[in-house]
Each structure stands twice: as structure tokens, then as C-alpha cells.
Specification:
Length: 389
């Protein structure tokens, strides 16, 4: 259930005072605390993984998308770098508290936002492969775990055990218009002329909010959600899992490189991740944050200086519990013959294998249970090793 105004005030007061008994519907604070914390951040709209984590060592990067490569990439390892907007993430990578996984995707291979998000959240091989979510099935298997979703409603990913999930929303966290625009984007995606016109209209509509208007509620909602989620996970006997979302990653037009729309999105995300670390405090050492998106973007730019719906992307992991400082990628390359369907970064890693590695080695979930109950149609799913310290 979502909180009413009175319970929200009590909740925030409790966070400020470090209280252990709060009037939050569905949130149980009894029992011994679970030190292991897991946070999932879903970037809705399709993050351009090649823009966030450019493969600067790939000779085809500048040939394919020179206009989208930031001029001052933060160096990582193995020929990869980070967009300059991800400065905090780079700091954590250097401190062995961040991992980059590249050329990743769910099993979904079409380009609909909503079908891709359903596949990401239900944890199956298709958009309609399950009616509940993989985190919900995890909560069924681990009855001592509690989760909180920083959204207006409990998302699909948590569906399956209602008594194990609470939700709390910051006003404006998910503008209903965002969902409508994503649906229209899906509708126009296969028509280049309509897609181009729609992308330009969306960008013009957002320019005022992105560039000239002071940061309002939608701009600050992710940061507020990060702070509240972190403080909630610190409560003794409180939830051990949090799910957050951020919208606006559908960069069809004027995506930019070092500056521009993608840069602003990445800066906002990076600031949110910094807030998570700051407010988790000593709990950060027992935390894994997974940052994922439903799909990536096309390798080449489109006619409006943006990118269209793609396939392979990048996932970011942060936290003190990680064996960080790693790039995990079976890199397929950006040569034209290496691209998926001649346009996308080819995925070489199932995103679920990263989730499974965190569940097995961080939350100590049995590998057989992960394959048979959490990811229900993935009996042969590889489980990523060497993620957790």
C-alpha cells in the first residue's frame, strides 16, 4: 500500500530520529537486522550503454558514432571508460567498489519499452513469461527478507509476495506523461519519419525543463528517493532490499556527448548514487547497488542527433560488498558485421546472470533455487562469478 500523508510524515520523522517502530503499511521492522543490503535502480527508457561506458579502445567507436563520444572520457580498464558525468562511479571503480558489465541484455530482442521492461522485471525469457516478478519470487523463497519500492505502486518486479513489499513515493517520481510518451515512442519506432518528428517534438517539450527551469520536483525526485531508501535500509530490522526507478532515458533526439541530454541524465544518476552511499553510511560496506535498463540504443545516430531503441547496453554495480574495479565483458566489437541486426551492440551476457551472481554470493541464495524458482525458465542460466568480495 502507498503511504497517506500522515504515515509519510511519521515515516520521515522516524528516519530522522532513527526509530525502529514506524507506522508504514506492510513494512515489518521486527526481528534481527539483515546486514546484507541490495538496491536495484531501473533506468526506464533505454540507457545508451555506449554513451555511459564508451569502449574507447574499439577502433569502430568513432567511426560509428563520433558525435556521441564525450571528449573527456574517464579511463577505466581494458579499453573502456566512463562518461564524465559519472565521476562518483569512477571514484568507486578506482576504490574497488564498482563493476561495469557491458554488452548485456535480457532475453528480449524487440524494441518495445513496455515489453522490454516486463521481461526485465518478470525475470523470464519473454515479456509475458511470468505474471509475478523475480524479486517477488525471491521474497517468497526468503520469508525473512523485506523490500521497499520507491514508487507510487508496487512494481511488477516485486509482485508475488504482497506482505513482503512496501512502497513509498516522492511526489512527481513518475510523471504519468512519461508512460504515455514511452507508449507513443513504441508506436512510432518502426516509422523513421514519424519517429524523427516525434523525437523532435519530445525534445522541444523537454528543453525548457532540462535547461532553463530551476530543478523542480521531477528533477529532484530520484535524489529524494535515494536518500529515503538509504535511510530506510539502515533501520534495524527494516527492509534489506530497495527498488528505485528513474525515467527520461529515451534519448531519441539531441542526445549529446560531453554535454546534452544524456550527460544531464548521467549526472543526475551519479549524484543519486553518491547520496545512496552517503546516507547508507557504515551499511554501504554490506551493500550492492545494481543499475540496469530495459535495453540499449542503436550504435549509429539518427537524423535528429539521438539514438533509437537498441539491444545491448551496460549495467553498473556499486557497493562496498563488491569485488570491484572490474570490467566484465565478452566484447563483440562495433564493426558493422559484428552488430546485432546490423544496428545494435550485440549482447553477449544475460543480465539475469548478473542478478543471479549477486543473489548467490551476496544474499547466499542456493544456485538451484535461483534457477528453478527466481528465474523460472532459466535452468541453464550461467551465474556470474567474482562479483562479491
Amino acid at each position: 500500500m502507498a503511504m497517506n500523508a500522515r504515515s509519510r510524515r511519521q515515516f520521515l520523522q522516524g528516519l530522522a530520529l532513527g526509530a525502529v517502530a514506524l507506522n508504514v503499511p506492510g513494512l515489518c521492522l521486527a526481528g534481527a537486522p539483515n546486514r546484507k543490503k541490495t538496491i536495484l535502480v531501473i533506468l526506464r527508457g533505454g540507457m545508451d550503454g555506449l554513451g555511459a561506458v564508451p569502449p574507447v579502445g574499439d577502433p569502430w567507436l568513432h567511426k560509428q558514432r563520433s558525435a556521441l563520444v564525450a571528449p573527456e572520457v574517464l579511463p577505466l580498464d581494458r579499453g573502456f571508460g566512463l562518461h564524465p558525468g559519472l565521476a562518483f562511479t569512477a571514484e568507486k571503480f578506482a576504490a574497488k567498489q564498482a563493476i561495469v558489465c557491458h554488452a548485456v541484455a535480457t532475453p528480449y530482442r524487440s524494441r518495445s519499452h513496455f515489453a522490454a521492461q516486463d521481461c526485465l522485471e518478470n525475470g523470464s525469457g519473454s515479456a509475458d513469461g511470468a505474471r509475478d516478478g523475480w524479486l517477488g519470487r525471491l521474497l517468497q523463497a526468503r520469508r525473512d527478507e523485506q523490500a521497499i519500492a520507491m514508487m507510487t505502486t508496487v512494481p511488477l518486479i516485486c509482485a508475488g509476495r504482497p506482505d513482503g513489499v512496501s512502497n513509498w513515493s516522492v511526489s512527481g517520481l513518475r510523471d504519468p506523461r512519461d508512460a504515455l510518451l514511452e507508449r507513443l515512442s513504441d508506436l512510432y519506432a518502426d516509422d523513421p519519419q514519424l519517429a524523427s518528428s516525434f523525437a523532435e517534438a519530445m525534445e522541444l517539450d523537454r528543453l525548457m525543463g532540462d535547461d532553463d527551469r530551476p530543478q523542480g520536483r521531477s528533477r529532484n525526485a530520484l535524489h529524494a528517493a535515494c536518500e529515503v531508501a538509504a535511510r530506510t535500509l539502515r533501520l534495524e530490522g527494516g527492509p534489506s532490499i530497495a527498488v528505485l526507478e528513474d525515467t527520461g532515458w529515451d534519448t531519441h533526439a539531441r542526445q549529446g556527448a560531453g554535454q546534452g541530454r544524456l550527460a544531464r541524465q548521467l549526472q543526475r544518476l551519479d549524484a543519486g548514487l553518491r547520496l545512496l552511499a552517503e546516507h547508507l553510511g557504515p551499511v554501504w560496506s554490506d551493500t550492492v547497488v545494481m543499475v540496469v535498463s530495459e535495453f540499449g540504443r542503436t550504435v549509429a545516430t539518427n537524423g535528429t542527433g539521438g539514438t533509437d531503441h537498441g539491444t545491448g547496453s551496460a549495467a553498473l554495480l556499486l557497493g562496498g560488498a563488491l569485488k570491484g574495479g572490474q570490467i566484465i565483458a565478452d566484447w563483440p566489437g562495433l564493426a558493422p558485421e559484428a552488430l546485432y541486426q546490423g544496428r545494435d551492440l550485440r549482447p553477449t551476457m544475460d543480465l539475469r546472470s548478473i542478478f543471479a551472481g549477486v543473489l548467490r554470493d551476496h544474499l547466499k541464495l542456493d544456485a538451484r533455487l535461483i534457477r528453478q524458482q527466481v528465474f523460472v525458465d532459466a535452468q541453464r542460466l550461467p551465474i556470474q562469478d567474482q562479483l562479491i568480495a
